[in-house]
Specification:
flat; Aspartate Aminotransferase, domain 2; single chain; alpha/beta; 6 helices
Length: 197
Amino acid sequence: MTSTRVKRLAITGGQKVVFEKLKVRWPIITKEDKDAVMRVLDRKVLWGAYAPEVVGLQEDFARYIGSKYCIAVNSGTAVLHMAVAAAGVGPGDEVITPAFSFLASAIAIMHHNAIPVFVDIELKTYNIDFKKIEEKITQRTRAIIPVHIHFTQLVRIDICRDSGIHLRSRSCQSCQFQKRNLQYTLSFIRYIHLSPL
């Protein structure tokens, strides 16, 4: 492979390296997408827990991941609040989460007056370093929220099972599942890098 040195950047009049025909606007909106939006607008049921598209998404996604339930909410932050509440986390409790994550991971914990306990990440995967979790567990540890980054799924269930700690898995960047009795949170927001299914 040969490399070519660029004498001038494209912004200052040099040759472009990304040609116009390679540029694609995203998201790609098809006629099928437009028809689906018009069906919703014509029906006049735009939102809500029982809106047909919401119910359909929940049912289809639950079936896809092999789960009995799926709850659609408006954001990854909202679902993290739900996950922390479902674990019974309250004032003074500690929740272990990685130091490398979107701020919602810690904010959802603090919203319940609990204390986020940060654990460093593994340099190869950018996921929580499971070797360092056990040293952070105390009498006040109520839950662990690992964050799955870039299509990796590293859940050490044994740590939680052995100490009676709730596991709430934040998988906004990894839509990969194994059929286990776990609770996952996901996001379909466009600027979170979801890996291909």
